């Protein structure tokens, strides 16, 4: 037992007090974990675009004050009542969506949309009692995605925590807790390209390049990267992307450009932008008869997907995924093992690193479209 078990811990957390305003490092109180919860010491966290959307709160509804953050790695500090599968000292990745192990989704091989713990962007409290575990002078500070990793300590439902190989370097594998696994799984588990096929990737951030990595592992022969920011193209070459298209360079819609490049369309496409026009293009650029498009980006809250139904009748398939269809607890440890066996390179996704005190720099980099993942060091 750690000396802090059962006690309130005072620690530093980056609090988003208002939409779009820089985070403020505050001293917060973190209550002990309750039934089926664990308290984690976060060692490293990184910034995913989903954090930025809910901080900006322009395209999404959000609640404040809130502790954001969901891509991270840490160590279990203490466990609440009923937790048997985790113990203090375990190395873990918290995940924004969970796996209760009991519901119809958890029992299905096809789904990771757990009834109890699936992603819920509106909820700012723990499901056990509808309260927060964070406070400042008794005032509650809301949670985000059940993870709130921009804090030295956080409380998470046990079903949202994957226990990983203790030898895995936490400053690297933290990026596997959201973006890279999401992109990788979107390709390997959902789009499922065959050897020698063509794959279009919309959006060449960390999620899109995770998807490109999946295409490379699946043996795709053409990987076409599409981004409005041409400065992404140089970096993307390291990920096996073979051709590049910037939609801004053409008068005609990008789906027509891709159809011409590929003799009628790509075999698979994966959308990783969050932009509704890119989602529609990603669907319409797949080959009729067999093409499959997968949506990954988080859309604007008012977005509507519009396409002619003939596109479906002509035997194109549209799918979407959260977390690349990986079940967090069952599947994430094996993604970490892919990295440990050097099948998956994680280092090339990490372009920046800042100490916790400079967390706002990570937001600035993402808003400028610079780099892929910025690691935030908690100590
Ligand atoms: P990022 O900002 O690093 O990368 C997004 C890229 O898309 C940028 O390079 C940008 O220039 C490009 N882009 C934007 N609009 C475009 C357009 N219309 N056409 C072509 N390119 C365009 O973000 P990220 O962290 O890689 O995340 C990508 C998306 O995936 C976000 O929407 C994020 O919220 C979402 N996401 C979804 C899941 C999931 O489980 N479904 C998980 C993690 C992230
Ligand atoms: Zn994310
Ligand atoms: Zn479940």
From TrEMBL:
Q: Which residues form the Alcohol dehydrogenase-like C-terminal domain?
A: 206-338
Superkingdom classification of source: Eukaryota
Give its localization. Answer: Cytoplasm
GO CC term (a single one): cytosol
Q: Which reaction does it catalyse?
A: a primary alcohol + NAD(+) = an aldehyde + NADH + H(+); a secondary alcohol + NAD(+) = a ketone + NADH + H(+)
Q: Per UniProt, what is one Pfam family of this protein?
A: ADH_N
- Any idea of its EC number? 1.1.1.1
| SUPFAM superfamilies in UniProt | GroES-like, NAD(P)-binding Rossmann-fold domains
Zinc as a keyword?
yes
Q: Which residues form the Alcohol dehydrogenase-like N-terminal domain?
A: 36-164
Keyword Zinc annotated: yes
Enumerate the Gene Ontology biological process terms.
formaldehyde catabolic process
**Which terms are listed as keywords in the entry?**
Cytoplasm, Metal-binding, NAD, Oxidoreductase, Zinc
**Family from the record:** Belongs to the zinc-containing alcohol dehydrogenase family.
| Protein known as | alcohol dehydrogenase
């Amino acid at each position: 037992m750690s000396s802090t078990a059962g006690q309130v811990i005072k620690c530093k957390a980056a609090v988003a007090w208002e939409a779009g305003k820089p985070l403020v490092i505050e001293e917060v109180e973190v209550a002990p974990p309750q039934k089926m919860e664990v308290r984690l010491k976060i060692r490293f966290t990184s910034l995913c675009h989903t954090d930025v959307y809910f901080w900006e709160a322009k395209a999404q509804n959000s609640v404040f004050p809130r502790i954001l953050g969901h891509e991270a790695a840490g160590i279990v500090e203490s466990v609440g009542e009923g937790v048997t599968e985790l113990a203090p000292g375990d190395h873990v990745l918290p995940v924004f969506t969970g796996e209760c192990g009991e519901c119809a989704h958890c029992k299905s091989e096809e789904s990771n949309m757990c009834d109890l713990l699936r992603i819920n962007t509106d909820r700012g409290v723990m499901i056990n009692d509808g309260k927060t575990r964070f406070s400042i002078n008794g005032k509650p500070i809301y949670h985000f995605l059940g993870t709130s990793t921009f804090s030295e300590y956080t409380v998470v439902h046990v079903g949202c925590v994957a226990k990983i190989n203790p030898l895995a370097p936490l400053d690297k594998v933290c990026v596997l807790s959201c973006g890279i696994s999401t992109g990788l799984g979107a390709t390997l588990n959902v789009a499922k390209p065959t050897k020698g096929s063509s794959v279009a990737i919309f959006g060449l951030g960390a999620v899109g390049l995770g998807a490109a990595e999946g295409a490379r592992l699946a043996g795709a022969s053409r990987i076409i990267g599409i981004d409005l920011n041409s400065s992404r193209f140089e970096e993307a070459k390291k990920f096996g992307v073979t051709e590049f298209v910037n939609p801004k360079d053409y008068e005609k819609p990008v789906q027509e450009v891709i159809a011409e490049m590929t003799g009628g369309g790509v075999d698979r496409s994966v959308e990783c932008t969050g932009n509704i026009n890119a989602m529609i293009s990603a669907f319409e650029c797949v080959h009729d008869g067999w093409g499959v498009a997968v949506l990954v980006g988080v859309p604007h809250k008012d977005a509507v997907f519009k396409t002619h139904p003939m596109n479906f009748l002509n035997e194109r398939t549209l799918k979407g995924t959260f977390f690349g269809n990986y079940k967090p607890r069952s599947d994430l440890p094996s993604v970490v093992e892919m990295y440990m066996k050097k099948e998956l390179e994680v280092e090339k996704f990490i372009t920046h690193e800042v100490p916790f005190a400079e967390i706002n720099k990570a937001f600035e980099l993402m808003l400028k479209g610079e780099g892929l993942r910025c690691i935030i060091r908690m100590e």
